Amino acid sequence: MESGSSNLSILAPPVFYGENYQAWAMRMQSYMEGCDYWEAIEEDFEVTSLSDKLSSFAHEISEEHAEEPRKKNLSQEIKRNVQL
């Protein structure tokens, strides 16, 4: 059985050390194809900007917080009706 460190090198992307770019580029393409990343390079892959993701997340959070008082009021109303 091989050592654990050799298994990790299979998962690591090839590193470019400034020499032999063509060989590195072929290895990098193979690595990216194996990880299903190459599709994003070949096609016009639309990437959502981080600011768009953050504003969307902030909107979701604000909606959740807006619902909390309504849920609290509803639970209080249910408790009052049960007590009657």
Automatic annotation (TrEMBL):
Domain of life, per lineage: Eukaryota
DUF4219 domain: residues covered: 18-42
Annotated Basic and acidic residues bias: 61-71
Region feature (Disordered): 61-84
Pfam families cross-referenced by the UniProt entry: DUF4219 (PF13961)
Protein name in the entry: DUF4219 domain-containing protein
Species per Swiss-Prot/TrEMBL record: Gossypium arboreum
